[in-house]
Amino acid sequence: MPRRAHIFSTAGSTAAIAGALSNETNDCAPGCGAGNASMSIVPLLAQSAFDPEFIETLVSAYEDAWRKVEQSGSAFASPRYRRAAQEIVAKRIIEMAQRGEREPTQLAEDAASYLARSYA
Hints:
Elements: H1 13-21, H2 36-39, H3 41-45, H4 52-71, H5 82-98, H6 104-119
């Protein structure tokens, strides 16, 4: 049986995300984006067999992909669609990682373009 990674033991942004998921507050106004991009992918990774270092890579790819969506001016970044779009992006990154993609830039680009072409 594959070893499951414990995402809360990793350092850096993943630990910060775990804190945000445990209902800690931040000083950012609602919708400012602080922590929002990463919060969606972490619960999906909880059942993964990825090692902690690669989880950090996936979180980084997710943040980059979401930044691309926001910068594109897409309606998916609006409050109305944000949560669903973030989940689609997160699931696509995980899917591509499970298929063997390891390059964070490629994961981010693929996820952002997948959202645009599949749900536009």
